[in-house]
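Possible race condition, two jobs.
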Amino acid sequence: MKLQKIVNRLQKLHPKEIDLSLDRIKLLCEKLGNPQDEINCIQVCGTNGKGSTISFLRSILKEANIKCNIYTSPHVKCINERFIYNDEMINDDDLSNLLNEIEETNNGQPLTYFEALTAAFFHGCKKYKQNLVIAEFGLFGRGDAVNILKKNLCNIVTSCSEDHLDWLPKNHRTIERIIFEKTSSLLNSNIVVAKQSSDKITECIKKNISKNSANKYYFKENYNFVLKENDFFYYEDKYGNLKIPRPNLNGQFQIENASTAIATLRILDDIKIKDQHIINGIQKAYNIARLEEIKSGKIKDLVKNNRLILDSSHNPGGAKVLNEYLQTLDCNKHVIIGMMANKDHKKYISYFKNISSLTTIDIPNQPNAISGKELKDKFKDFPNVQYKKNIKDAIQSIPLKENDLLLITGSLYLSGEFFNLN
């Protein structure tokens, strides 16, 4: 209760949920002694794959006994997920105390909720200065509160695609503008560019960072992977080759994310990573609600022996890789979907092929979500589409047969609702 009261107060310090400016957080961090200047950080930006790439980094580093502080957003189950210190999620009391310090230092000045959380994370790193920090850029990197570092160890650019277009001027809602926002202010240490969905996007990134003096590492050019056997992939870069068991995370795109994490850690000379750390870490990585197979719980009980997969993809790029995975499965697929209002719903659903049924639902307690009825109307050309109010009603309406798969997808907020129910 104490934590929620502080969160509620912080959410009222600024009339806008998002206000892309760095002035407020710079001023607040200056009052806190600029804790962000004392960290050794790997920063991660992009549209898709950030969370999974961070999960692989974290898992490999844990195998090497290298402690991490990690900042990601948004959360799925609880706000504490955003604050990892010394490889542990912060508890309620410590987070309450940390946010209370931020509130007192800010002294009622205008501040967005995300800026408050970001300042709190940096401030919390003071207790663990020796740890490696991994911090995710949210939304657009150029105006993101995480983007106030003066130095870092590396920038990772994961797969870039169209998302959050409503935050751009109407005549600038293009992939080129998104790439500019995400990469134009990257620091000049090291830049690792992950596999992109097209050569056009890779070339656009290259052009945008061409004047950046950082050491640059590109997928295919400087590191690569090859699939040769069912349960292994072969990673290769200038340091040599590695035969690695496939990750436990579903989808070939996870091998792409794993390779990006490996490439990053192998170029950082001060981080002593051995081959066995990589092999063990890749197998042990876990990422919540990313093609996650749910094997127990109240919702799982409703689908009985059928496979239940939860995935938080919410933009066209995420839909593309999700459906590449679905096409590898020889079964009937039923999809339950809820989304936020500001997404490209029609483009998202256009990637779904050979789906046996599609059920749209409401996402409760999310004023920025599109209603399931509206979503059904947008998907009216999709065969076998229906609307149900919630996850439970949707599942009970689907005639699942033996070996059928049920997928719940469309939003991180829907994933959070799933976990609350399950």
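Job #2 (started ~2 s after job #1):
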Amino acid sequence: MMKKRERGKRKGLTTGANSAAAARAATIGLATGEVPSELESLLPNETRVKFIIHDGEVSADGKAAHAMCIKDAGDDPDCTDGAHLTADVRLLDGQAGEVVLKGGQGVGTITMAGLGLEVGGPAINPVPRKNIEANVREVGGDLLESHGLEVTISVPDGEKMAKKTLNDRLGILGGISILGTTGIVHPYSTAAFRASVVQGIEVAANQGQDTVVLTTGGRTEKFVIAALPELEQACFVQMGDFLGPALDTCKKEHIKQVIIGGMVGKLTKMAQGEVITHANRKAVNTDLLAELAEGIGAPAALCEEIRAAETARFAAEKLEEIGLADKFYIALAERTIATLKERYPSEFSVRVMVCDFSGNPLADVNSFPLPFKGQGECRRQRECPGVEDTGEG
């Protein structure tokens, strides 16, 4: 048997930490006339780490300096690994003591409210902002007595990297975000994706949306967007495996209706109470699937097959063969809603839309906005064509 490849454990350094180190190096260049080739920079977690500095240069008039750090994400599969975090620092006459932070090429621009950053400003998160300024002030104290310092952070190829992120959905255009709460990248932590899920919901709420549509991936998102053309783009948030953080944020932001688009496997994870639905976290509960199959009239022998299987897809395919698929998808959606309403009894209504692996609709079940009391309070909307869902029986 082939041995499973172990994931690496080597930590890396965030875009924010690299930006701060580059800004520190450029400021030293302004102060001394020479940009160092390496230095120790202060991280947001108050530790100090050595960085290699590239492309150090001080202008001929001594009023500007340039430095760059290459991001090493460690063993984390980060799309910004190898990014050139670049800082250009220049003197500002008549602004003694001020540190002005700007975004250059490849750093995204904020175009929507709700991210805690100024609309029209650079996508440099609050912790990296503070860390960059702290490093600049620590080494530029003498300069700041008579001048201000303008720090411009750039990321060549940042716009290309941003296409692999969810930035455009958050209203961050033209480049990547400068991120990092500790300065350290932990392998496979997926912290950046989780943060983007939370931010997506916050943006929707800030725009006055009272409905959020949570999807588990690209296919389910395409499915619900086609099914719900009346909703604004800000309502759609690709949550991936982060169901718990997404719903907690919906509760915090007072979202009134949560719509979940999903396929059988992820919905089974939700129905069994998992708040992180990644395949490696916990196996699908086939006992639950067998129970649902039994409840819709599946033969006992088939229920035992489902119980002994390893995937939710097996149950769906077997029930399809005997004409019970529609009832199964409705039952699964109802159980998902029941489980979620146990955790969030009255915060928001829940609607579950089920699709197959090709994005074709399979079931659409809506809960009452009132506390859930049992499966009898769910109904499949397509059984009542033309009737507006008012939240009543």
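The longest strand covers residues 84-92.
Logs attached separately.
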